[in-house]
Amino acid sequence: MLIQPYLFFDGRCEEALDFYGRAIGAQVLNLKRYKDNPEPGSAGPNPPDGNKIMHASMRIGDSTVMASDGMCRGQTAFRGFSLTLETADDAEASRRFKALAEGGEITLPLARTFFASSFGMLRDRFGVNWMVMGPAA
To answer: Which of 68, 37, 34 is nearest to 49 (CA)?
Structure first.
């Protein structure tokens, strides 16, 4: 069994994919636009802009995260969960934390804890909550 997060960016998916590529090395594996759907309406209401992303998947390290523009209402609500990014060392944790925080909000600065050599929390520019964690302490 496998659980994979599916994030709906309400019209900002392409921007998010580009950002995660730069910030944490995400690689887009699959991308389908609404205009490419041979059966319009079969994947829910089509947004007015057919160039919006109906489905994408990106590889972040060993994980796959899926994404979409969804209904394109501009109302993301990433509440009740965080994505956790575990890094190989503290230098990478610091670099990734700073990159993800660009344009977002740091909710807990990156620092040493009793359970990790570095740990911090942030909400990125799209509203996605992240926990960045260095090696276990």
So the answer is: 34
Which helix (H) or strand (E) covers residue 94, if one does?
helix 90-101
**List of residues 6+ apart from 124 with CB closer than 8 A:** 19, 23, 100, 101, 103, 104, 130
**CA–CA distance, 56 with 8 (Å, rounded to integer):** 10
pLDDT in tens, 83-133: 999 999 999 999 999 999 999 999 999 999 999 999 999 999 999 999 999
Q: What is the DSSP-derived secondary structure letter of residue 47? A: P
> How far is Cα 29 from Cα 91, in angstroms, rounded to an integer?
27
**Domain spanning 83-133 has what CATH number?**
3.30.720.110
The fold for domain 6-68 equals 3.30.720
Q: 4 CB contacts (<8 Å, ≥6 apart)?
A: 63, 64, 65, 66
Does this chain's domain 6-68 share its CATH topology with 83-133?
A: yes
Q: Where are the domains of the chain?
A: 6-68, 83-133
pTM recorded for the entire structure: 0.91
